[in-house]
Design a protein that fits this description.
The complex is a heterodimer of chains A (635) and B (223). Chain A has helices at residues 3-24, 44-48, 50-60, 79-88, 113-121, 145-165, 188-200, 215-222, 240-261, 268-273, 279-291, 309-319, 331-342, 352-362, 364-372, 376-387, 390-413, 428-464, 466-476, 484-500, 503-506, 517-533, 543-552, 559-568, 604-607, and strands spanning 37-42, 68-71, 99-107, 131-139, 169-172, 175-176, 179-180, 228-237, 322-323, 327-328, 587-593, 609-613, 618-626. In chain A, the strands form three sheets. Chain A has a nine-stranded mixed sheet with strand order 2-1-3-4-5-8-13-11-12, sandwiched between helices. Chain A has a two-stranded antiparallel ribbon with strand order 6-7. In chain A, strands 9-10 form a two-stranded antiparallel ribbon. Chain A starts with a helix and ends in a 9-residue tail after the last strand. In chain A, 38% of the residues are buried. Chain A has 635 residues and is α/β, with parallel strands linked by helices. Chain B folds into two domains: 2-134, no CATH class; 136-221, no CATH class. Chain B is built from two helices and 16 strands. Chain B has helices at residues 59-68, 218-221; strands at 2-5, 14-20, 26-31, 37-43, 70-74, 80-87, 106-114, 120-123, 131-134, 136-143, 156-162, 173-177, 183-185, 194-196, 203-207, 215-217. In chain B, 6% of the residues lie in helices and 39% in strands. The radius of gyration of chain B is 22 Å and the shape is elongated. Classes of the chains: A alpha/beta (635), B mainly beta (223).
Chain lengths: 635, 223
């Protein structure tokens, strides 16, 4: 894979990790949706921003997955009704089912404008009893002369139509009083519109527990008074991108540090199997961890196998081991003879013992593989990785494979299970069970040896160039470019967590090909967040708590100041459409977490109407206002 | 000549019954007004024979079957089935047909054969009333061991028998003592005296899971 596309993969990884931080920064209950909402996207740019729109819906609404989207090529006058009917068939999701909302996200700069314009003018087919409202969000650009010419022409035609057909347009552009929006910030315009719909279409409560002003109906009504509107927007949010970058960067650094620190004088065998132990002990570990649970805890059924003289001897060896003339019966030997007495012969087919063994013991490995969906090799790869660093795997596994290939078979051949822990308390069936388990191990261990050698070969091969894979990953995770305060706070915190939970690194990251590492880092990141959620909950903290955490860690920003600065921001300066005059008749909204305390310290004129939600990673401010046609700067 | 899927209700076999005369010989009876003949399929596979299983049957095999009235065919899975072709008139004289040999446990399926427009054998998509399983019978003898002089329990004597000609699958019969896990029986243990420590608990002989319709207790046949 060329390096460029690998850069893409890492950008995607950072985005995925960021999304995990956003998705988890929730404090409170999500909101419910008032009525079915169909989002129609006209133009390629609009379709590209469907994820932005639906991410916003999903961040505020618990049931956003029931909402539908419609692209330009699937659009015809009947389709909105069909899509709305699909939504209306989901029971218990919406508060109103006979009222639907259709939002057009319309990029009028697209070359398909004429088609879209014709489509928009078509009457929709809805039955009489269903009320539907259409909102038109118009996206345009005026950063080049050509754009301005196209925009002027199309906006004029649209505005003529809107005035004549009693339609209402909310127009957003890429040039603002604060400068141009670039490819990274332009999707914010789509987010603004999704936010407006969130306010319009949420369920508000006015009951004993909550006294909420129903913001939605009022905003919808206000947006249907005038033909043209625009909006201003300002937000501060938890810098999840930088937090993700710093954490991934620290993850790579710590992984390498652990590898460098873990060089030891012990040989590979002792590192893998334990001091003074050998490979059969490692196989015993496999047996204990994976197969034991498939065996019957109550083995009393073994006592009901046919009673042969050898079974009688076994019974006697337990009750009364000493028999005349100083002869002593050893239960272990007697058990082996009892098993032999119940076994078949090569010519006569299997005996009862073989069938009992096959049904109750022999199937354990098959059941394990079926349940876990993994192989013996992958089990040992994980063990190797958790006990040897990638440097040790690279430097030490080769010679060990040779040793194991030479003496492995002999090791298995000489294997005998150790004596039982408490032979005095064992009954007849326990001795027979002991024989079955020993037989099971003897049959299983050659397969385990094979799996271990394969695992060692694979890890030795993958670890050879793993240093380069890590260097490349480091290059693609730009942790050093993150905000200073975030870098200080989160690199320190992540390091602390990795110290506490090293298995997050050792269990998830293992020597692999360059294409596989991003997925491993992603798994480790998810597990790190889980570890954090079980403790301090820093990664999933709200914006407010995140800022406080950064200060505590020596960050430069003062949390309250950052938040107050957001509310001091004059929204009139953040207009998304250039007009000759400052807006009047504005509707001002603040979208904040329902548990946010800072609003008590602010004046109402600073925050306007408050839309409270469970979302805790962001504070968003919106100003919506009507515009006069002659006031829009079109040239 | 080919196997085809049943496409009309009149081709279905109705009132299909398998019975046994006093002398132990099996017979079948059935009803169908349209058939020119029937093909009886004998199988020991876990599942009934489906149309898909017969997709690879070659033409010359079918010709041979029609000519000789009997042939055996190996399924792609490696298992064998036996097919018997019977003309309609075989049922005309007697309401039952018994000119066949079966080796229970064995499944019997009967399919309709039409001569016109082509010589075709019609198999239903899903096996139903035209399928019966003939179980093999086993007998059980149990003698409780009672108590020894010290009041302890003595092993009881269990004998499980099955006809010599039955093709027994290892472990398909089992016994259990009380509620404990069952002990599967190999062929070598059948007909032998097995001494079982049951401590007064009941000893039950039963077909193993998956073999329930293949074996039946001889004692139940008379009831």
């Amino acid at each position: 894979m060329p390096d460029k596309s690998r850069g893409e993969v890492y950008r995607q990884l950072i985005e995925d990790c960021s999304r995990k931080l956003r998705g988890n920064a929730v404090d409170g209950n999500g909101r419910l949706i008032s009525m079915p909402l169909l989002s129609v996207f006209f133009g390629q740019e609009a379709e590209r921003n469907i994820p932005v729109v639906f991410d916003t819906y999903g961040a505020y609404w618990v049931d956003a997955r029931y909402l539908r989207a419609l692209g330009q090529w699937d659009y015809n006058p009947e389709e909105p009704e069909r899509q709305c009917n699909i939504m209306r068939s989901a029971r218990g999701v919406f508060q109103e089912y006979n009222h639907v909302l259709i939002a057009y996200y319309w990029d009028i700069m697209d070359e398909t404008f004429e088609t879209a314009f014709r489509m928009a003018q078509d009457e929709l087919s809805f039955p009489m009893m269903t009320r539907y409202e259409c909102l038109y969000f118009i996206f345009c650009k005026d950063s080049t002369a050509e754009y301005r010419r196209v925009r002027k022409d199309r906006l004029n035609r649209l505005m003529d139509w809107a005035a004549a057909a009693n339609r209402h347009l909310l127009i957003l552009s890429d040039s603002t009083d604060q400068g141009m929006l670039d490819a990274e910030t332009y999707p914010e315009n789509y987010r603004i519109c999704a936010n407006i719909l969130t306010i319009i279409n949420s369920v508000y409560y006015n009951d004993a527990l909550r006294r909420e002003t129903p913001l939605g109906p009022e905003l919808l009504m206000n947006l249907q008074r005038e033909p043209y509107y625009s909006a201003s927007f300002y937000s501060i949010e938890k810098n999840i991108h930088d937090i993700a970058c710093v954490t991934l960067d620290t993850m790579l650094t710590e992984y390498k540090n652990i590898a460098k620190r873990s060089r030891s004088m012990q040989n590979v065998r002792e590192r893998l199997c334990g001091v003074g132990k050998d490979y059969p002990d490692l196989f015993d570990e496999f047996f204990q961890e994976n197969l034991l649970r498939f065996l019957h805890a109550d083995v009393s059924f073994l006592r009901t196998m046919p009673w042969t003289p050898a079974m009688e001897d076994l019974e006697q060896s337990i009750i009364n081991p000493r028999r005349g003339w100083g002869r002593t019966l050893n239960p272990a030997d007697c058990a082996e003879r009892a098993v032999a007495s119940l076994s078949g012969t090569p010519d006569g087919g299997p005996g009862i013992w073989e069938l009992v063994y096959d049904r109750y013991y022999g199937s354990a490995l098959r059941e394990w593989q079926q349940e876990e969906g993994r192989t013996i090799q992958s089990f040992f790869e994980q063990k190797l990785n958790s006990r040897l660093s990638y440097i040790e795997q690279r430097d030490m596994l080769g010679p060990e494979i040779d040793v194991l290939e030479r003496r492995g078979e002999e090791l298995i051949r000489n294997y005998r299970m150790g004596d039982p822990m408490d032979p005095g308390s064992m009954k007849l069936e326990d001795w027979l069970d002991n024989c079955a388990v020993e037989q099971m191990k003897r049959e299983l261990y050659p397969t385990l040896l094979e799996g271990l050698i394969e695992a060692m070969k694979n890890m030795a091969l993958k670890s050879k160039d793993f240093e380069d894979v890590l260097i490349e990953a480091d290059r693609n995770v730009p942790g050093e470019r993150a905000d200073d305060s975030i870098r200080t706070a989160y690199s320190h915190y992540a390091k602390e967590l990795f110290g506490q939970y090293p298995e997050v690194l050792t269990d998830n990251i293992r020597p692999c090909d360059p294409d596989e590492l991003p997925a491993e880092l992603d798994k480790a990141f998810t597990q790190l967040i889980q570890a954090d959620t079980a403790g301090n909950r820093i990664y999933t903290a709200s914006l407010e708590k995140d800022l406080a955490f950064q200060i505590e860690q020596g960050g430069a920003q003062a949390s309250r100041d950052t938040i107050y600065a957001c509310f001091r921001q004059n929204l009139a300066e953040m207009r998304r459409l250039r007009t000759l005059h400052t807006p009047s008749d504005t509707m001002l909204y603040s979208m904040v977490n329902e548990n946010a305390a800072f609003l008590n310290d602010l004046r109402q004129d600073q925050f306007g109407m408050v839309f409270r939600s469970a979302r805790a990673d962001v504070i968003e401010r919106l100003m919506i206002y009507p515009v006069e046609r002659g006031d829009i700067v079109l040239d | 000549m080919a196997f085809r899927e049943i496409n009309m209700d009149a081709l279905n076999i109705r009132d299909f019954r398998v019975g046994r005369f006093q002398n132990g010989k099996y017979y079948i009876s059935l009803a169908n007004t349209l058939a020119d003949g029937y093909v009886i399929c004998f199988s020991k596979t876990m599942n009934p024979i489906m149309l898909d299983d017969l997709a690879g049957v070659p033409q010359d095999f079918l010709n041979r079957l029609l000519q000789n009235g009997y042939d055996e065919y190996q399924l792609p899975s490696g298992e064998w089935i036996a097919l018997r072709a019977v003309p309609r008139r075989a049922f005309d004289a007697m309401p039952t047909f018994s000119d066949f040999t079966t080796h229970p446990p064995e499944r019997i399926q009967v399919w309709t054969m039409l001569v016109r427009p082509h010589m075709d054998i019609y198999v239903p998509r899903q096996p139903g009333a035209e399928t019966q399983f003939l179980p093999a019978f086993y007998s059980v003898s149990w003698r409780d061991g009672g108590r020894d002089t010290n009041g302890g329990s003595r092993p009881g004597e269990l004998v499980v028998s099955i006809a010599r000609e039955v093709q027994y699958v290892q472990g398909s019969l089992e016994y259990r003592v009380g509620e404990r896990e069952p002990i599967p029986l190999p062929y070598s243990a059948l007909g032998q005296k097995l001494y079982i420590q049951n401590n007064g608990e009941p000893v039950i002989v039963q077909p193993a899971a998956g073999y329930e319709n293949r074996y039946r207790d001889e004692a139940a046949r008379n009831h």
